[in-house]
Here is the input.
Amino acid sequence: MSIKVKIVSPEKVLFAHDADMAVMPGAEGDIAAMPDHAPLMLTLRGGVVDIYEGDAVTNRFFVAGGFADIAPSHCTILADRATKLEDLSVDDAEARLAGLEKSYEEADKMNVPALDILMDKIQSARAEIEAAQSAIPGMSL
Amino acid sequence: MASLKDLRARIGSVKSTRKITSAMKMVAAAKLRRAETRAAAARPYADAMRRMLAEVARSVAGEGGQPALLTGTGQDRVHLLVPMSSDRGLAGAFNSNINRTTRNLVLKLQAEGKTVKILPVGRKTYDFLSRDFSDLIIDHRHLAAGKEIPFSAAAELGEQITSLLEKGEFDVCTLVYNQFRNVMTQTPTEMQLIPLALPDNDNADNAQVAAYEFEPDEGTLLSSLLPRNLQVQIYATMLETAAGENGARMTAMDNATRNAGKAIDRLTLKYNRTRQTNITNELIEIISGAQAV
Here is the structure.
C-alpha cells in the first residue's frame, strides 16, 4: 500500500512517484501523509519534505512555503519554490536572509499583514540555510 | 522599363529577404517547441491550484467577509485592464489583435461611464496604447527581460495588482491576452481576474471524496491561496503569450518566405524576357544595319 506523492512548483513537476510516507512542514507543525489519510488541505512553512519508502528516506526536498492537498490515495505538494536538498546553496540562502532582514528593518511596523508575510519569508530562509547545511557531507543530522 | 541590372539587384534583395524570413521561421519554430514544453510543465501546478481553490471556496461559500480578491469590491466603477502582448514585432497580427481588442474595450467601458486604468504588459502594446491613452496608463512592464519567462515576473505583477486592489485603486481587473489555440490560431481573449470567476463544481469525481479538513482554517487558507492563484493565472497567460507569439511569427514568416519565392519567380521571368527582348532588338539592329549597306 502506497500513496502517489507529487511535488510541483509553478514552473514544473519536480517529483512524482509512489511512496509509503511523505513528511511535510505544515504551517502549524509537521504532518505525514500516509495511505488512507483523511482528506486535508494545509499551508506549508519553509522546510524539508522527506519521502519515505519503507523506513528509509529516499528523497529530500526543500520547499519555501506553499500548500498541500492530502487525500487517501495521493498527496500533492504545491511548493512556492522547491529544490532537491543536495542542490541547495548555503551562500544563496544567507544572501536571501540578509536581504529579507534588511527589508524587515525598513518595513512599516504598523502594517501587520505585510510584516507577517516578511516573517514567514525570513523563517523560510532560515530553514533553507539549516537544510542546506544538513545536506553537506560531514555535517549530517 | 526596368533595366537588366535593376532586375538583378531586386532579385538579389528578395533572395536575401527570403533567407532572413526562413531563418526567422526556423528560430520561431524552435522557440515555439520550448515555449510549449514550458507551458505544459506549468499546467500541473495550475490544475492542482484550481482544484484546491474550488474546494476551499465551496466550503466558505455563503459566509460573509470574503477576501476582495475573490468577490471584488462589490462595485463596478473603476476597471483595470491588463493587455498582454509580446515585446517584439514581426509576428503577423498577433500584437495588433491585442491592441485592437484593448482599444475597443477601453472605448466601450468609457462609453458606459466607467473609469479605465491600463497596465500594459509587453512592449508592443505599451507603445501602441501610449499613443492614444497615455493618461490612462498607470504603469507598464515588459513581458520578459531574458528569453525565458521566470515565475517571479508573474509573481511581481500579481503582487502589484493585489496591492492596487488593497489600496482601492480599481474594482474589476480584466486581462486581455492571446489564447493559444494552435500554431496557426491565437484568439484575443478577455479574462476577468478580479472578481474571480471560479469554475462550477464540475469535478463530479471529487464529490465522492469525504469533505476536506483545512489547516489552519478555510479563511486563512483561502486568503493565502488567492494571491498565489492570481500569480499562477498570470504566469499561465504569459507562457501562452510566449508560445502564441512564436506560433504567430512562425506562420507569418512561413507566408513571407512563400511570398518571397513567388516574387523571385515573377522577377526571374521578367528578367529573362527582358534579356531576350534586348537580344532580339540587338539582332534586328545588326540585321537591318547589314541590309542597309
About this structure: DSSP finds seven helices and five strands in chain B. Confidence is low (pLDDT under 50) at residues 204-208 of chain B. The interface with chain A takes residues 38, 41-42, 44-45, 48-49, 51-52, 55-56, 150-151, 154, 209-216, 220-221, 224-225, 228, 231-232, 235 of chain B (CB under 8 Å).
